[in-house]
Design brief:
With 260 residues, the protein is mainly β. The chain is built from no helices and 21 strands.
Length: 260
Amino acid sequence: MRKPTHVVRLCSGVRGFAGSRARGFAIFAIVMIATAWANAQSSVVVFQGLTHTAVGGAVLRVDKERNALNVETFDPAGEDGVAVALREATSWTGRLEATSADSLPLNLSWHAVADSQPISSASMRRVGKAFEFSAVFTGATKPTHSAYVYKDNRLVGSLGALPPTAHIVVPEGFCRVPEFAAVLNCRMVSRFRNVEDVCMWEWFFGEQLAFRLPNGTVVTGNELRLVEEVRPPGHFLYQTFHEIVIQSNADVTLLSESVR
């Protein structure tokens, strides 16, 4: 039996989502101290019509007041999380929060799975006072990808031929809550989709951020896309995927999900 673990959760009300893009978060936050017994929780939860299964030692619990799914993690290495079963999908979108103590080197990763094999992964990893976003595409004929930054649906910067080791750097300010300096609360909409035989990861933010591309160029926007490069066009091996796995060393809250 696992001993009680004291988890600090940031509860917030969020306003101003227009479509899939978050605009102007208004934060009303309180900190709650909750004591949880991991073995008292179900490892499988149906949330918004999708089956969610705990990964590693994670604990899943439905927050009825917020109509959200809380994923409590315990592994500092970030191997705990949740797997979302999708059947045959071409697009998954999730609005989520990742909450941790400021002292934690927060990391968050997403994995798209087809035929029981990961076809692409993306990560958001805290390094110093910034977060590094990166992606790996394994289903394509080339390992490179392109980065695109948009500001309110308008392309403001891009860079291609990026290797899997490339990072897009974003200041950590979008995870800061002024009322609670000791807590990080990263909020975003994340999406994985297959468009015209090309897969991509997308993130939408509720404010304008300064994105630093691997060549040193800094552009301001509120949407980041990492898009695989397929050569020749149309040679992508997977048309659909059946699972999204989210892993983190922070507590993750899924606020909404949609699948196509």
